[in-house]
């Protein structure tokens, strides 16, 4: 479900490195060359490029990119070039340091990645920041948000498909009870959402709908100004239908006055190799405009070109 | 710091398996033979034995042992034979299912293992129980105990030695403040104990002592009947001086009317390959009796022989 286009004949890593080095040399930077290489290599290839580049030129490729590029284009190239676990660690750290109750990046990383991927991100966090992710999240958040976010980022959910239907019924009832009492941050709601496997949560939420008529997220919309409810709904969506969650992030990023480049860049860079194809389809269905056209309309220059390359736009 | 004695010339794995199989054959069981093999092989060797045994005889060695052995001897041999992460998963599951507020096994597993070992135990828990450890802990506990135990078993602490002294001072003060207010289960106390690295916690508790005169565990003794305080003190001990924690578990297991075989078996089986040598020294210092003599006095038969073999008693 990746949108990335890797050419059938990929140049050698050494050649890619040489071309990149050339793109940085002399006056000005050859952005098109950078896009034509990095925008068309998968994670394993990019990792190798970074390694060989450092060995050959004695400089981290990310440092070189940082010196040569600017603004949104720089950010998308840097995020994209990072190894996925390292990228998640980086985004999570950023989200933690400038955390506000409306910031859903931590939920996104904790819930849309596989349990194993989340662990790898936590490992990368240790290596890069000499601290643990949960330690920073616990330190920078408070109240109900802390109560939800710390177990979310600490979870190592079971990833099998087995489902306990009896449990699903009991916990659907329990969720409904607590939501009816507006006890949104009570221990049980948090426990179910932060520890059960995704398959189990999906079964529980299906039961919820069967038994009580509404999607749980509809019932979690009681107070549209309550940011804790927003984050609970994001948690549910990230766990059971990540592609819909990401479609909405893109929709809000594009459809507002002045594009939200931060969100746009993040979604494209983190999902291109995962499920961006499905997200694109969702986007088209929901907005009656293909995602590439919407992006082309809202962005310009090298930033636009890099985004289009990553979302698999034919001409990019 | 292991007490295990592995002979310098170890028979081939096939030979070990054949001998074990022989020990189970015919009328009665040759317990001495079992002890002479399993009581003198390290984790890697035992894992191989289990693997080759299953391939050769079409039966899991643990099943065979389970059929042949009984009572305390069975339990120590089974626990010992399990691969360490699987053993931790098994013990944690047992502790969760029959959890009571005085049960400290979860704290022990969460805090005396390295962060990486705890992760491996969580992985083994998935494989064996088709659920996550934190999910079971959250489900079977409640109140303050849940508030402490879930993040403890979910933690993946940073394991580097770096220490932030400014932070240690701030958090020592914060801990002292909360403990003075008897707010033992407040968010900050839990956050510090469940997320900071062991090195950082050690620095914080040193600051605590320097600044406020007492060991934190002394201040956590305000109410000797409060089981939450017991578990907080166990958490602190397991994090900063596991060998003292285990010495006390052994002391209490041995010095009571009727030995606590459960605790004795668990400590010997889980620590023999880790730090039982240090624990033995602590025990001798604290009780003026060598551990092997104390064990020999309190136990009998094959159980005694197996324990003595694992704690490195010369004649075993």
TrEMBL record, chains A, B:
Q: Does the keyword Ribosomal protein apply?
A: no
Task: Tell me which InterPro entries the record gives.
Answer: Annexin, Annexin_repeat, Annexin_repeat_CS, Annexin_sf, AnnexinD_plant
Q: Which SUPFAM superfamilies match?
A: Annexin (SSF47874)
Biological processes annotated in GO: response to cold; response to heat; response to salt stress; response to water deprivation
Q: Which residues bind Ca(2+) 3?
A: 298
Q: Where does Ca(2+) 1 bind?
A: 24, 26, 28, 68, 254, 256, 258, 296, 299, 304
Query: Coiled coil: which residue ranges?
Result: none
Q: Provide the GO MF annotations for this entry.
A: calcium ion binding; calcium-dependent phospholipid binding; phosphatidylserine binding
Pfam families the record matches: Annexin (PF00191)
Query: What GO CC terms are in its UniProt record?
Result: cytoplasm; plasma membrane
Q: PROSITE patterns from the xrefs?
A: ANNEXIN_1, ANNEXIN_2
Keywords on this record?
Answer: Annexin, Calcium, Calcium/phospholipid-binding, Metal-binding, Repeat
Domain notes, please?
A pair of annexin repeats may form one binding site for calcium and phospholipid.
The family this protein is said to belong to: Belongs to the annexin family.
Protein name, as recorded: Annexin
Organism from which the protein derives:
Sesamum indicum
- Phylogenetic lineage: Eukaryota, Viridiplantae, Streptophyta, Embryophyta, Tracheophyta
